[in-house]
Amino acid sequence: MRLPETILIRPLITEKAMNLQERRNQYAFEVARDANKLEIKHAVETKFNVTVEKVRTINVKGKRKRLNTRRGMTFGRRSSWKKAIVTLKEGDRIELFEGVA
Question: At residue 100, does pLDDT exceed 80?
């Protein structure tokens, strides 16, 4: 197993993620693109000392962006990334998120 720091890139702190946290005890993370559900579960459990019940993953496609350069209009693309939504056992909390909402 890899280190949790290499699997969990950053927590996602968005309005939708905060609603999931309050209503369903679910937390969202940006994770490594090659990480699988078992690795994500193990990383969250070891890093935050909680019990994970379920992991859902989503591959987010990078958006196409228009760029103005000296040579005229060109197009680029943002990087694609992977999102994980982790459901915790009832009563468990991740302290990192407390006080953010």
Answer: no
Distance CA 41, CA 51 (A): 9
Q: How far is CA 25 from the centre of its chain?
A: 15
Task: Tell me the pLDDT tens digit for each residue of 45-70.
Answer: 999 999 999 999 999 999 999 888 77
Please choose, from the candidates 93, 92, 85, 81, the residue with its C-alpha nearest in 3D space to the C-alpha of residue 40. 85
For the beta carbon of residue 37, count every other beta carbon within 10 angstroms: 15
The highest-level CATH class for domain 4-90 is: alpha beta
pLDDT at residue 96 is higher than 90: no
Beta strand spans in the chain (E): 8-11, 26-31, 52-60, 64-69, 72-77, 81-88
49 CB-near residues (< 8 Å, 6+ apart): none
Q: Which residues pair with 60 in a beta bridge?
A: 81
User: Is the CB of residue 87 less than 8 Å from the CB of residue 26?
Assistant: yes
Q: Is the pLDDT of residue 71 over 60?
A: yes
